[in-house]
């Protein structure tokens, strides 16, 4: 009974049924054997990164005798310390995402078959599906943010819980809409995250205090995530999961060091007054400051990515004697992990330490 129910949740026809409810259909047409190809296009008819072949509004099946055209909607659903404050939320998300990404390459369950599922994304075809890391990330981010702020700011916890649930659900359902996961993938992603949060919640304050006060934090924040990236489960083919995982760990590492440095120098950028804080009213001044902060931050982070990525790749190419135009070399373990980790840890550090200083200097705080 349990096995049949799990098989039902893993059935791609269940995903296809949900897609049809959203107005997304496969129209099967007979075609000559010579008219099919292995090229893929996204739902707008444009070729994705690195894709070759003619631009056709279809997702070609691999059996060589049918072409499945997308028909229907083609839009992507696009002071007193409370537990989870400061960098512990990022720590929870980091661990949850690593568990999810690594589990994919250990369990090795394929994504839903097409047909019957309509695939709206092709970049991640080389990845496995179980569990859905989008569902895990959405659940972790939404609910750790809720827990981190519910005792620090005055707002309705019921509305906050509703917003967290809706955001998590929308992201999870979007993975079914795009045909990237089965229902079982999504449910397992949510459950794993929920169990992890419940088990670790009693220790959040301890973790938070250690991250902010321990002199070992910078070393731990660099060494352990880098080691986790470098020892990521190996596959017999290239998959973007290792690179994506390295990016996640790199950002979290940089943010942790940034939070630690801010705390050491007394730059916590906390509101003044007693807890819980009042939420500021939405005024033209607040909106203008928010837009200005956003633009300053984006400029700094984009520049950081471009500069650090270029310099890191140049150094690694020289060290391993690789031609500078060899794009495929970026997929090698000894190059991909260091360049992505250094680049995105720099972004995380600048986002949490340098950008707030710049905001303060520009009187945007």
List the helices and strands and how they pair.
Elements: H1 2-9, H2 12-21, E1 24-30, E2 58-60, E3 66-72, H3 88-107, H4 133-149, H5 157-177, H6 183-200, H7 204-213, H8 217-230, H9 241-264, H10 284-319, H11 333-361
Antiparallel strand pairs: 1-3, 2-3
Helix pairs in contact: 3-4, 3-9, 4-5, 4-6, 8-9, 9-11, 10-11
Number of helices: 11
The chain-level structural class is mainly alpha
Q: Strand percentage, roughly?
A: under 5%
Question: Helix share of residues?
Answer: 55-70%
Mean pLDDT over all positions = 79
Distance between the termini: 59 Å
Q: What ranges have pLDDT less than 50 throughout 5 or more consecutive residues? A: 30-84
Which of globular, elongated, flat, extended, rod-shaped describes the shape?
globular
Total E-strand runs: 3
Rg, rounded, reads 23 Å
- The oligomeric status of these chains comes to single chain
Order of secondary-structure elements? HHEEEHHHHHHHHH
| Largest sheet composition | 3 strands, antiparallel
Neighbour order of strands in the largest sheet: 1-3-2
